[in-house]
Design goal:
There is one protein chain. Helices cover 27% and strands 23% of the residues. The protein is an alpha+beta fold. Strands 2-3-11-8-13-6-5-4 form an eight-stranded mixed sheet. Strands 1-10-9-12-7 form a five-stranded mixed sheet. The two termini are 36 Å apart.
Length: 335
């Protein structure tokens, strides 16, 4: 028998109980720690605004102050998003043995594949979620053995979505670069240029009998430079603001942007990686599709040389290979 999947545990759990390894400590339980009745209105930015100065200012402020924002009018059609979501949902609704074909190899260093547990959690706690990881760009980095063959339109929907993301990615990096006083292309170049990896993850959070006690994904910042996420319509994303946890408002077809650790490092702390987590629902399945924009594994990342100097602005972060950063983070080793 392989790894136990949360989807199976959820199907087998009927009463008001969940296995003890899913019950969070009191300082993490969403029933206790969520600010009730308050939905966080993190910045919503109209990406089609012809006033580039205004857009630049909005992105800069949201990235320094919040580390999370939602962009609307981004030119990715509702249909392309709906197709991505439909094929992902269909995959997770396949019989278990069909999904296990894509299970990640426990000995592999790669995160790609179908799986359940990702990082070492303190006290052996577990998140109420199964996932599928695979790269969707660049073509040289794609490993199609991790792309489901069923549903048949899976590949087409994902390729279409990746193609649609390019314009958004280029524009975001350009605005973030200009916001720091760098040339338009410098930030993207620093993170790997055309070798920038788009890593898709599907998070599948089955209904949970005790959503007040469990978390889908524990509080974390993303390792990526940027994350671009589309959720389904089930509330679950929470952000930490001034030490408090709030639900983030769901906006249909918006792209949720997270500043990730590498962006914080490259900007030498100007841009802030957002601390966020995911709650689960008692009777609905939540699904989300983050795409992590990250450097290639051997790429070396540190504070951008133009943003640091010895006297006024010394580097606040170490410079290292991205693969080393990932290893440390997943194994809870200080950076």
């Amino acid at each position: 028998m392989g790894v136990e999947r949360v989807q199976d545990i959820a199907s087998a759990t009927s009463e008001d109980t969940i296995p003890v390894e899913f019950i969070r400590s009191e300082n993490e339980q969403p029933g206790i720690t969520t600010v009730p009745g308050t939905v966080l209105e993190c910045p919503t930015i109209d990406f089609s605004d012809p006033d580039e100065e205004k857009l630049l200012k909005q992105i800069f402020e949201a990235s320094t102050d919040w580390g999370m924002y939602q962009i609307v009018n981004h030119d990715i059609s509702n249909e392309a998003i709906a197709k991505l979501q439909a094929v992902g949902k269909d995959f997770f609704e396949l019989p278990q043995e069909e999904k296990e074909v894509y299970a990640k190899d426990p000995n592999s260093k790669s995160v790609e594949g179908y799986g359940t547990f990702l990082q070492k959690e303190l006290e052996g706690k577990k998140g109420w979620v199964d996932h599928l990881f695979h790269k969707i760009w660049p073509p040289s980095a794609i490993n199609y053995c991790f792309w489901p063959k069923n549903p048949a339109s899976y590949r087409e929907a994902n390729e279409e979505y990746a193609k649609n993301l390019h314009k958004v990615v280029e524009k975001l990096f350009k605005l973030l670069s200009l916001g720091l006083g760098l040339e338009a292309q410098e930030l993207k170049k620093a993170v790997g240029g055309d070798d920038l990896v788009y890593l898709l993850k599907i998070n599948y959070y089955p209904p949970c009998p005790r959503p007040d006690l469990a978390l889908g994904v524990v509080a974390h910042t993303d390792m990526s430079a940027l994350t671009i996420l589309v959720p389904n319509d089930v509330q679950g994303l929470q952000a930490c603001r001034d030490g408090q946890w709030y639900d983030v408002k769901y906006i249909p077809n918006a792209l949720v942007i997270h500043i990730g650790d590498q962006m914080e490092v490259m900007s030498n702390g100007m841009y802030k990686a957002v601390l966020h987590r995911t709650t689960v629902s008692k009777d609905k399945t939540r699904i989300s599709w983050p795409v992590f924009l990250e450097p290639p594994p051997d790429h070396i990342i540190g504070p951008h040389p133009k943003l640091v100097n010895d006297k006024k602005n010394p580097p606040k972060y170490k410079t290292k290979k991205y693969s080393e950063y990932v290893y440390n983070k997943l194994n809870k080793i200080p950076q």
